[in-house]
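Lab notebook, bench 4. Still working through the backlog of constructs that have no structural model yet. Next entry is a single chain of 222 residues. Request: give me the structure tokens for it.
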Amino acid sequence: MARLKEFITGSLDTLIAEDPDVRRHFSTEQGQPLDPKGSVYQVRKSMLEAALTQAYDSKLKPYDKKTFLQKYVATPLRYLAGAGYVAGTALFFGLPGPVGFGFTGAGVVASSLADAIDSYAYVRHGQMKGRRILEILGEDVLEKPLAYLPIGTGLLDMYRGRRKFEAKLFKDAQPALHDALSYAKGLFLDRVATRTEDDRTIIPLSAFRDQRYASTAVRQAA
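Model written out:
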């Protein structure tokens, strides 16, 4: 799932370049793009970034939540799995025999436990649909046994790690992602309109007149 910085960076480019309602606020009256280094562009960019941050917190932040077990148990287990795979592969070549299989097996066990913790947490907190977990389990049925091949295939499981969950999570989060972009766009357009109206507020000339230098008739008329 996209993190805050990634979400803002990608969404800025998308909205400014592709959304006509947003793009016109980054263009001149003649339709030419504003200078990215200019003050107007920078102010509006900051406003859009603020809107995207608020939209992320409201619509997408729950998808990035990690439980205590995920942070402090599953993550270390994945590092242990990687170490087991690396040691197992090295021993296969340097010391053929059961030792290599032992380290690889330890890696498989650690990786499987980490997957179980992540699977439970994602489903339990409504971040991922149950059928996605079944899809991952189906992939693991083929992937985990490959780790025992003495050609470094265990490293594939190490690489995929939590990425396989993130890929599924991204698919399930698409409606929320589109909702967040629409929400951010609405916030930005409202704020730009409010700022524009404030900038156009007409101040009476009397506010700039120094009454000390005005005649009695003028002061009375003011």
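Notes after review: The radius of gyration is 29 Å. Residues 82 and 158 are 5 Å apart (CA to CA). Flag for follow-up if needed.
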